[in-house]
User: Fold these one by one.
Assistant:
Number 1:
Amino acid sequence: MAPKTVLITGCSSGIGLALAVKMARDKQKRFKVIATMRNLGKRGCLEAAAGVTLNKTLEIRQLDVCDERSIITCINSIPNRHVDILINNAGVGMIGPIECQTIEEMKGVMETNFFGVVRMIKEVLPDMKRRRSGHIVVISSVMGLQGIMFNDIYTASKFAVEGFCESLVIQALKFNIFVSLIEPGPVVTEFETKVYEEAENADYSTTDPETADMFTNLYLKNSKAIFSSLGQTPNDIAEVKGLAGPPFRHQTNPVYTPMTALKHADPTGALMTDTFYKMVFKYDTLMHISLKAIKVIRWQARKMRQGVKMLGFR
Ligand SMILES: NC(=O)c1ccc[n+]([C@@H]2O[C@H](COP(=O)([O-])OP(=O)(O)OC[C@H]3O[C@@H](n4cnc5c(N)ncnc54)[C@H](OP(=O)(O)O)[C@@H]3O)[C@@H](O)[C@H]2O)c1
């Protein structure tokens, strides 16, 4: 069987880079990967990670999801514009009190995380429909299912993506096109570094002191603890089975499943708001102890897996 052409956006780092390399190195050679990035000056890490697959099963092309011309140029450069699998990965984060963010900055997040996905899908969908085959994957987030304090705009962008895909999936199925949403919890990538850097340099004088304190001393502290205790690696996401098959939603971190289930357990939203309020403002000490315990358990499990591997059992 001819390899499937996979186009991935945002491959200069993190999940996109890991996915591109994982698929390009597929032992059964099922994929030809078009790994795209908006700034080709950042191709070094991907080239190094791609190794022997570079220009064989992995090609690097320029594509900015906010620039329609670059999308069209990239798709037109693919023979017969034939994309079997589109992986919408490019994304940006944004954290902080909304009083400290401009509408222009907020629009920037929506432009990339929501309209970026829409632009890409609009460009490949007609060809997929004609061929009556295709798979559209979107790297969403648990924040596409559940709002998190001080992630208001980022969460809104991922909710937008989720609503868009939930509407599209049924029509797409009629054309034998599958749509999949991958919903990771925290993943340790440059994404985290970038938002923390922005948070450190931001001006909090446009909000009240209580909110500024809540963000810098409570949220940032909790967020860092959550990333270091529960964070997955980009490779964990690249291993996700849903990428090669059609389930519509795939949460990659089972720790988050109960959290996202709260609103379904109580449609009034009271259970969800009450739980989060208590977790953040009342039982934060307990939360930190639990996070530390989880961190130790995960560390032990990792060591055990390494030991099992070293002994040659896997
Ligand atoms: N890290 C997490 O905790 C986490 C959790 C859930 C979901 N996600 C989602 O996973 C996806 C990948 O994030 P990541 O964690 O791998 O972060 P990352 O390492 O920062 O990667 C983001 C990628 O998107 C690219 N990008 C940004 N704007 C773009 C644009 N206009 N056009 C094309 N590419 C653009 C970045 O390129 P530049 O290098 O040029 O900026 C970079 O290659 C995002 O959609 C994110 O929302 C991340």
Note: Residues 55 and 233 are 26 Å apart (CA to CA).
Number 2:
Amino acid sequence: MAAWVEATSSRARRTPRARCRTTATATTCCNEPDRDCARCPRLAAFRAQNRVAFPDFHNAPVPSEGGVCARILVVGLAPALKGGNRSGLPFRGDASGRWLRAALDRHGLGEDMVRITNAVRCVPPANRPTAAEVAACRPFLVGELSGPELRVALALGRVAHDAVFGALGLRGAAFGHGAVHALGRLTLVDSYHPSPQNTNTGRLTPAMFDAVFKTLKDLL
Ligand code: SF4
């Protein structure tokens, strides 16, 4: 199993490695936005600004990572300016990503089992997407949620939680760390986001995060 914390080529990591056991194919899920997607004018303007300020960064919608036959989908908020927006991979290159990927490795969850995405694919100013931007990016999350072998989604934070409900066309239930929501063929598990604001203050501890991953594995 490839370790998530090891730095590897983004191209290699985007390539699905597992064969789906169902007859459905990758074409039923996982459409990626265009590099210059303009559905969110504010985010497109921020992207243009960042292409000038940080020419070596990815500065485009950040594609999902992991196999299309994954059974677990991790849904974050949006790429961080110097995290996913720099590396071109979700949750790679910043403290939140290190927390998440270390937890995946601790629990033996490799890229054949897990896919990682964000509710909003483009970096928002101050890490705060608007409700309209979450809605505009919804079609891409809908695609991810149609993964042929997907069984469990992990929402990292309330925005991701609400985005999953919205993408499934369901009325939202309250977000709560460790809460489990049965949503038809899919089960949603909530967790606080592993942001430094949460992990540095003890709002989210390694033990709390490990308990969430134990729940995820029990649901597979
Ligand atoms: S956040 Fe999503 S919908 Fe909005 S511009 Fe980026 S890729 Fe397009």
Note: The longest helix spans residues 206-219.
